[in-house]
């Protein structure tokens, strides 16, 4: 019995010392490896820049607006883009007519991304599955691609705001590329 009490007395300070060494080494390794395991994320940088307002110094390019009315007067390359967008507007109106959706706005930025702003009735009235949602999105992309050869991506907006999805199956919060049309 006496031997057991002696070993317990010996093991308690030993365990305490081991615990302290472990805590100190964890703290030291945190500060040592803190910078080595950090990663860059454009998503985090985007959020931080929105919060700090750092993007105010960057020059923002104005997109080529189409939906300013029937009389569009532009010249040069913008004129070609405006003509292509006018053709895309007509084609989109015909395509969206079967879904009873309003085309609110249509424009293209200097990098070739076309923004299509649709009425909220598309999202409200959509009752299809994932394949039907894919068909709608691919149809929108193909319609614009046929009229605007410079198209690099298609960004869908619902009532002027970014939306996550139309029917809950396919993410539209990011621009749609040619892979959406290749999946049908």
- The domain tally reads 2
Roughly how many Å is the radius of gyration?
A: 29 Å
Low-pLDDT runs: 57-76
Main-sheet strand order equals 1-2-3-4-5
What is the chain-wise order of helices and strands? HHEHEEHHEEH
Give the total of beta strands: 5
Structure class: alpha+beta
Report the span from N to C terminus: 80 Å
The helicity comes to 40-55%
Overall geometry: elongated
Sheet-strand content, in percent, reads: 5-15%
Major pleated sheet: 5 strands, mixed
Q: Report mean pLDDT, rounded to a whole number.
A: 77
Number of helices: 6
List keywords for this structure.
184 residues, 6 helices, alpha+beta, 51% helix
How would you characterize this protein structure?
This protein is of the alpha+beta class. It has two domains: 2-57, no CATH class; 64-182. Helices cover 51% and strands 12% of the residues. It has helices at residues 2-33, 42-52, 76-97, 121-125, 130-147, 178-182, and strands at 64-65, 103-108, 113-118, 153-158, 161-162. β2 and β3 (113-118) form a beta hairpin. The longest helix has 32 residues, at 2-33. The relative contact order is 0.10.
Topology, element by element:
Layout: H1 2-33, H2 42-52, E1 64-65, H3 76-97, E2 103-108, E3 113-118, H4 121-125, H5 130-147, E4 153-158, E5 161-162, H6 178-182
Parallel strand pairs: 3-4
Antiparallel strand pairs: 1-2, 2-3, 4-5
Helix pairs in contact: 3-5
């Amino acid at each position: 019995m006496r031997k057991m009490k002696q070993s317990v007395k010996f093991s308690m300070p030993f365990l305490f010392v081991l615990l302290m060494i472990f805590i100190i080494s964890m703290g030291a390794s945190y500060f040592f490896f803190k910078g080595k395991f950090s990663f860059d994320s454009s998503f985090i940088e985007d959020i931080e820049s929105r919060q700090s307002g750092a993007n105010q110094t960057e020059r923002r390019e104005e997109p080529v607006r189409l939906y300013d009315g029937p009389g569009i007067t532009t010249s040069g390359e913008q004129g070609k883009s405006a003509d292509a967008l006018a053709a895309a507007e007509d084609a989109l109106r015909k395509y969206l007519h079967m879904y009873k959706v309003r085309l609110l706005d249509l424009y293209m930025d200097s990098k070739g991304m076309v923004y299509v702003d649709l009425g909220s009735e598309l999202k409200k009235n959509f009752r299809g599955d994932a394949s039907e949602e894919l068909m709608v999105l691919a149809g929108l992309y193909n319609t614009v691609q046929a009229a605007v050869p410079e198209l690099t991506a298609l960004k869908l907006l619902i009532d002027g705001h970014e939306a996550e999805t139309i029917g809950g199956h396919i993410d539209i919060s990011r621009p749609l590329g040619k892979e959406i049309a290749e999946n049908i």
